[in-house]
Write a structure and sequence with these properties.
- It contains eleven helices and eight strands.
- The longest helix has 17 residues.
- The protein has a four-stranded parallel sheet with strand order 2-1-3-4, sandwiched between helices. Strands 6-5-7-8 form a four-stranded parallel sheet, with helices on both faces.
- The protein folds into two domains: 109 residues, Rossmann fold (3-Layer(aba) Sandwich); 114 residues, 3-Layer(aba) Sandwich (Rossmann fold).
- It starts with 9 loop residues before the first strand and ends with a helix.
- It is α/β, with parallel strands linked by helices.
Length: 236
């Protein structure tokens, strides 16, 4: 019989949103060098859509998601996972607080993404940040990019409020094509003001862009994919 304790297990703290967590799992499978079932990364997934809305919490209009996220983290911890991935950019506002509650490393999606940008960065290039209002207001990517003096551009507050956020919620309603058109438009705005590449800083964005097979994907840093790739490097 196989001794399952010999295999490190990846914990996935999902639900933000549920579709993004499923997309992450598929990326993990696709990125794996496994040639048979037994070689894939063992995973335990907590994918609960009941986690309070991160955007409302950051605007002080709703309950903080921290307790719910911590509940899921502790379930993963008790399940014996060796590493945790959170496929949600905005949720990383609570990353440090969650990390203080466990000895298990929680991979940092923001740091992973910016390190990948550094590997491909040409001095002086601007990076576009396409993100939720919550992620932008907490400056998750702005601070990390500034550490390395990487200039960045963002959409206007009006574009985020009136176009981007409704598109994110459209993905959650399974209207990915409709959302993809808006994501593509807003990405092009960033390119028009000098961005050489775009950070897809919300895990709903690639779901929309892939739905319309957008060419924006060719000039983007897909944070979902980069997190999956980091998990593959860790395991193999």
């Amino acid at each position: 019989m196989i001794d399952f304790s010999e295999f490190p297990t990846l914990g996935i703290l999902g639900g933000m949103g549920p579709g993004a967590a499923v997309d992450f799992q598929q990326r993990l499978l696709d990125a794996s060098p496994a040639t048979k079932d037994q070689e894939h990364i063992p995973t335990i997934v907590w994918n609960h859509g009941g986690i309070p809305d991160r955007q409302l919490a950051l605007k002080n209009l709703g309950e903080s998601p921290f307790k719910a996220m911590l509940h899921g983290l502790k379930i993963l911890e008790r399940s014996g996972v060796a590493k945790v991935a959170i496929p949600c950019n905005t949720a990383h506002f609570w990353h440090a607080d969650l990390q203080q509650q466990t000895n298990i490393e929680i991979l940092n999606m923001i740091e992973i993404t910016v390190q990948q940008i550094l590997d491909h960065y040409k001095y002086g290039d601007k990076v576009g940040i396409l993100a939720t209002k919550g992620a932008l207001s907490t400056e998750l990517y702005q601070r990390e990019l500034s550490k390395y003096n990487i200039p960045y551009v963002m959409n206007s507050e009006e574009e985020i409020e009136k176009k981007f956020m409704p598109a994110v919620y459209a993905v959650k309603r399974n209207e990915s094509e409709k959302a993809g058109i808006i994501f593509q438009e807003l990405s092009q705005r960033l390119i028009d003001v000098g961005a050489g590449s775009i950070i897809l800083a919300c895990t709903e964005i690639p779901l929309g862009l892939h739905a319309i097979q957008s060419p924006i994907l060719n000039v983007s840093f897909d944070t979902t994919q980069l997190l999956a790739d980091a998990c593959v490097r860790w395991f193999y």
